[in-house]
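Researcher: Structure prediction, please.
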Amino acid sequence: MELEEFYKEGQLHRVGDRAARVYYRVDGSVDWEEFYKKGIHHREGDRPAAVYYRADGSVASEWFWKEGQCHREGDRPAVVYCRADGSVESEAFYKEGHRHREGDRPAVVSYRADGSVEREEFWKEGQQYTPSKAKPCEGKTVEIDGVKYVLTPVD
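Model: Predicted structure follows.
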């Protein structure tokens, strides 16, 4: 493998939205590339700051970094692993360097080849948790024939 790096003032950095660190395979194809700004992983414009490729040139994984932290805005995954056919194998959501996703939605999702969900993990601010199993009606009050009832789960 051959490594190509670009520096500005002693720090990994390259202007013009071009990778500052590129690893090449023996055949000359790109194995992976990383984008840096002033020595830290960073790329503007919702584009991955690290991209890893298969020997055939297809994308194996993409990592989104902002100011040195794995991060992506807009409820989109910051890490995406792809199968050789281009389908998503797994994705992970990060906020400011920590696994994180709002709204009791999974921050890590693995998919089967048919696209169905194989595994989910729930994370907030870097802490894994189990989402609430509460039923949407649990605790609600209903009135039937003038009598009020509080709904509770039945085992």
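Model: Residues 2-150 form one domain.
Researcher: Thanks, that helps.
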